[in-house]
Amino acid sequence: MAARLGCLRSLRLAVAAGTAAAVLAGTAGTVAADPGGHGHGHGSQASGAGQSSAPPGQSNSNAAAPSAAPPAPAPQASRGSGSGGHGHGRSHGGQGGGGGHASAHGGGNQGTSTPTGGHAKKTQASTMTTSTTTAASTQATRQSAGGATHGAKKSPAGQGASQASGTQGATQSPASGPASTAAPAPALAPAPAGAAQPASAPAAATPAPAPASGLTSHGRGTRHRGGGHRLAGRPVSGAAGAAVGRVTPASAGTAGPGSSTVAPGRSPHRATGRRAGHPASATATREILRTLTKIIGVIPLAVRILIALLAAVALALAASSRLVALRARRLERQRRSLLADVGVLQAALLPTIPERHGLLETSVAYQPADGPAAGGDFYDVFELGDGRLGVIVGDLSGHGRQALPHTALVRYTLRAYMEAGLSPRSALRSTGPVLERQLGGSFATVAAASFDPDERVLDYATAGHPPPVILGNRLLTPLTPLTACASPPIGIGVVTGLRQTRIALPGEAVVFFYTDGLADARSGGVLFGRERLAEVLAELGPAADARAVLDAIIARTDQRPDDMAGCLLHLPGDSRPPVVLAEELEIDPDEDVAEHVDRFLSAAGVARSEVAGVSQAALARVSGAHGIVVEARFHDGTPAVELRAGDSVLLRRAVTGTRERRRMAR
Amino acid sequence: MLGKGTGSGSSAGDRAVSIQRCEHDGGTVVLAIEGELDLASAPSLKWAMADEVRAGVHQLVLDLSGVTFMDSTAIGVIVGIKRSLSEGERLALVNLSPDVKKTFEITGLESSFRIFGSVDAALESGADVEAPPEGRASSG
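Above: the input entities. Below: the structure tokens describing the complete assembly.
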């Protein structure tokens, strides 16, 4: 409490002092009170504004006070000159009209006072000490100096002592009590208190002008009126004297709470430290309140307004800070909740997959786009009832939140068809019309595959999607996929699911499904591309997982505008390379059949000389029928082309091939 | 906005894409596109094409000879415009570079669009509304 009051006072003092000084002396006197109960006063002479600061325990007055020490003699304190001698310690006289301020502090227990006169001197510490001692013994000091203030502190010892040093007549100052603070005295004329006592008596003399502050000493309730002010010193409990310093208007002297103060005008003797011992807390409180009120009364309107404004600003800031804090907490809660939801959604959209299926090791990875494109990629790896493994990797046009429900829709629809036993191509074929109406304006590109671990055969079909990169352990370049007559995306109003590729993986192989975010990543503006992706796969070797592939791409590119999803299948084995077993195409009777079949067979590796014959035969057999499939087969020793309707073979013709694909098939 | 004046160019996106508009007889508008069509620049193409469709173009020809790269976003834009055409309005793609042609092949869109080897071929086909698209057999 004491400390708090001290602070409060300090504040006020500072303000008041400044103002007062300005007003009065025309000088600015500042007093700083140490909350700790020390007051410092500096008196500056020159200007008249003095501030006094007193270090704890001692007070110095810089101000001009001559040595205060000087005791007794202090003649009159005039304000101007302040003779040093007042009773208190600190007063400074402002010279001339300047106000001197005095501050008091209490040093530890001692009170010190410095006298200040209008002189330039300071009081010495020693002086103070002395005083203190004295005080302790009994005296209270008072200061009278006009303007003196005193800090009163209490002695820790519980003495309320004020001490003042009045001893020497010099001024001294107010003692300070330990804990309490002293208030600086404003500068003003010293106290008039006429009473200065012995020591100072004279000093006090001056008075008039300034209101001096009065202090009280403990124990006594004295009041004083220093130039018109009065102080009441109340005894305070031992500890605290309630001392209130009063301030003159000019100055805002405050007394440390608890501390005793000196009353100007009083004889030092009277004030006793001992007295301080009295309890009187209620009274003290009242005193304090009254003092505060008075202090407030002295504050100029402008300052009050200023203080009010500052207070309003402080309140507004506090309120705003509180609101922000509340909001931050709420947002944090919401964020946690959203993250949990996102986790659930991600789990639903990006499922956990079996890490192994027979010998096959599988891994997936997903990397959201740097920019606003996130959300369109999806994948799934799941075991099919017949022992095969299903794989789906896709990308939905349109990105972000609106894409999420569609990605789930496409993935689950495809998965359902595949689990029902359809081949990847047939699953895409069936999914197309089903989702056509549901995808709104967006469309999906998908690669779907099934792997038979017993046969070591992979079937894959794409719909507007890049085919997987397939590498063997001795293969430096990947298998070249057949992309002629590829099927369009799901959802663009065109029949899809017309093509499928069957690959045998007799030896060790890596199959990597990906979305075009990987190939479309850039490094220095250059597309990463499928070729470099294949290089990365070859470089990383069969031990790498999908995450490592994505990380390698991330390390080699600086722009990744789209999501990246990858699914890597690794099948251990010997060095036999992957082989294309068959390429199939369902003929769409609405297309130009001959042209379509020609293009497909040529790309599949059937010798050009044989293509025309086959496509003519196909044309004749098909003639508008749906579901006719042309398959170029490269296994069983003899390359052949089959024309089927469902399970029945309409035509089977052995062919020779001229392209790499066929050679590879051998 | 984009491509509104004949011969005018405009760009958008990180990698500039320029679209030049040229109007021919018979309600045919040719948009000559240069640059890369990707996530960043596809919107420019979309608006340019949508403006033409709104203006009632009879045949819209996209000259892609200057297009070095086209990603799925751009393809999505073209597909979307194609689907928004009403009866009697047609879209043709001409002068596809090998890379762009490959993109159309992989995405299975080759046979969904009318693709020609030159602007003239597209204009000729446009003169005969019922004529089957030409130039499709050029792949192999």
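Note for the figure: The CA atoms of residues 58 and 64 of chain B lie 19 Å apart.
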